[in-house]
Amino acid sequence: MNADRRLRIVRGCLLIVVAGLVVSGVTAFPLVAETRLLAAVLHDLPAPGGLVAWVDRVHAGLAATGEAYPFIAYGTDWLAFAHLVIAVAFWGPLRDPVRNVWVVQFGVIACAAVVPLALVAGPVRGIPFGWQLIDISFGVLGVVPLLVALRHIRVLERAQAAAWASGVTAEA
């Protein structure tokens, strides 16, 4: 496989990660409206009763908190902002994946860290185990394109090092 094809694969994988971060970030702002919509949809579907009850409870909690203490949502605003900022960080590896491989490695570490966070904080916060598994799936699914990208970046890196060692300039 040539370097151009590898570079396209890397960029495609990273764009998937960026898109996921942007969607996660943007959807963290309107939580009350989203949970209201989700609850309405689940009530119209043959959804499991436990899921419907959980979404109803989450919506009621968010709505009541928003009414009485709207400043609490500022925390999720910062969560949303963090997702968007992390997405921006991937601009570097999109431009030059070999030089900015550390951002991809950071992403892999962050995905791995989702698992213990969900398994420790979930029970402390009263999150049902099934929902913890959904949270864990973001790390598990997110790491797949990052690992694919990382594998191709390492090949590009070796090719650039070999070209540099032989005195040939290699463009990635």
Strand content: under 5%
Low-confidence stretches: none
What coarse outline follows from CA principal-axis ratios?
elongated
Structural class: mainly alpha
Distance between the termini: 13 Å
Largest sheet descriptor: none
Radius of gyration: 20 Å
Q: What is the averaged pLDDT score?
A: 94
Number of strands: 0
Number of helices: 7
Helix content: over 70%
What letter string, H or E per element, gives the SSE order? Answer: HHHHHHH
Provide the descriptors you would attach to this structure in a database record.
172 residues; mainly alpha; elongated
Q: Could you characterize the architecture of this molecule?
A:
By secondary structure, this protein is an all-alpha fold. 83% of the residues lie in helices and 0% in strands. It is built from 7 helices and no strands. The longest helix has 37 residues, at 129-165. The protein is elongated. The model has no long low-confidence stretch (mean pLDDT 94).
